[in-house]
Amino acid sequence: MFCVAPPELETKMNITKGGLVLFSANSNSSCMELSKKIAERLGVEMGKVQVYQEPNRETRVQIQESVRGKDVFIIQTVSKDVNTTIMELLIMVYACKTSCAKSIIGVIPYFPYSKQCKMRKRGSIVSKLLASMMCKAGLTHLITMDLHQKEIQGFFNIPVDNLRASPFLLQYIQEEIPDYRNAVIVAKSPASAKRAQSFAERLRLGIAVIHGEAQDAESDLVDGRHSPPMVRSVAAIHPSLEIPMLIPKEKPPITVVGDVGGRIAIIVDDIIDDVDSFLAAAETLKERGAYKIFVMATHGLLSSDAPRLIEESAIDEVVVTNTIPHEIQKLQCPKIKTVDISMILSEAIRRIHNGESMSYLFRNIGLDDA
């Protein structure tokens, strides 16, 4: 696993005041690896807690040490059973609240349901619901990483620190791709062009954007602006009122804006889950002359047959962070590599507990950075 700690963090990492308790809210042992790394960097022991499922699938949490008057940090990484993961977190937060903890800080590297942050026809904004549930349970602060949309922070009425994984991914590119100077940063759709631009400007590289791909669920055609259906009703609309109809979109042929011929193509995004769009982008880039293709993403959900499809594809390497456990996927596909981000999470915990400024962790990050 790739990780190099800057000397400024290494010298400060183990300095924490008393009164800090670190819990892992996961009943799944494979999800506790990140918690153990964070505890090791902070130089503290993991708090004693039991999290398990009853025979009827109810979640039970038993805290086995005093948290009265202490800063409690609850680390929760998302497993395949995302709804159980959420209930584990909510129940543990509420248990700490009723046990008179001074503050309860959730450390949730990947915020679940983050893609459901916009109104979809007659659906709901689930990430807003989840934010309300966490605040109601007793959460007083949230540490997360690379939210799918930065505006999700506004769903909370508590402080939210949205950390960035890009410094670690940029460092990986510079140190693990020998000829990265011959690379071009690729956005697989116009929607991810801002993130690609951020990477390209920091690495002093060119940018390419793929346009005309098959439309996905993030498109305008499935949001609330097309609901209810546009059916002309004589009874409902005054005869003299003519409402102009929106011209339907027509997808153009797939084109690549930018030169990738004879170059290394590095596709960047925040989440890689269903890999179909990444595979299509890789095929397009190969046809345009790219001789190596890398995919960089913060959150590697890699659901279903993603490992097998990546292994059989034109993609040379997929680099993700350990915000989500994916050891099984790595066994299925050697192309998947992991970057460790436990260092920045542990430093955030240390600074919040000691009452220090968090601005150090957001250096050189502009308001427009994705």
UniProtKB/TrEMBL annotation:
Gene Ontology CC terms: cytoplasm; ribose phosphate diphosphokinase complex
Domain Ribose-phosphate pyrophosphokinase N-terminal, residue spans: 28-138
GO molecular function terms attached to this record: ATP binding; magnesium ion binding; ribose phosphate diphosphokinase activity
Signal peptide, first to last residue: none
Taxonomy, superkingdom: Eukaryota
A GO BP entry: 5-phosphoribose 1-diphosphate biosynthetic process
KW Phosphoprotein (keyword) present: yes
SMART domains tied to this protein: Pribosyltran_N
Keywords assigned: Acetylation, Nucleotide biosynthesis, Phosphoprotein
InterPro entries: Pribosyltran_N, PRTase-like, PRTase_dom, Rib-P_diPkinase
Annotated coiled-coil segments of the chain: none
PANTHER family: PHOSPHORIBOSYL PYROPHOSPHATE SYNTHASE-ASSOCIATED PROTEIN 2 (PTHR10210:SF29), RIBOSE-PHOSPHATE DIPHOSPHOKINASE FAMILY MEMBER (PTHR10210)
Subunit structure as annotated in this protein's UniProt entry: Binds to PRPS1 and PRPS2.
Primary role: Seems to play a negative regulatory role in 5-phosphoribose 1-diphosphate synthesis.
Family: Belongs to the ribose-phosphate pyrophosphokinase family.
Identification of the protein by name: Phosphoribosyl pyrophosphate synthase-associated protein 2
Source organism of this protein record: Suricata suricatta (Meerkat)
Gene: PRPSAP2
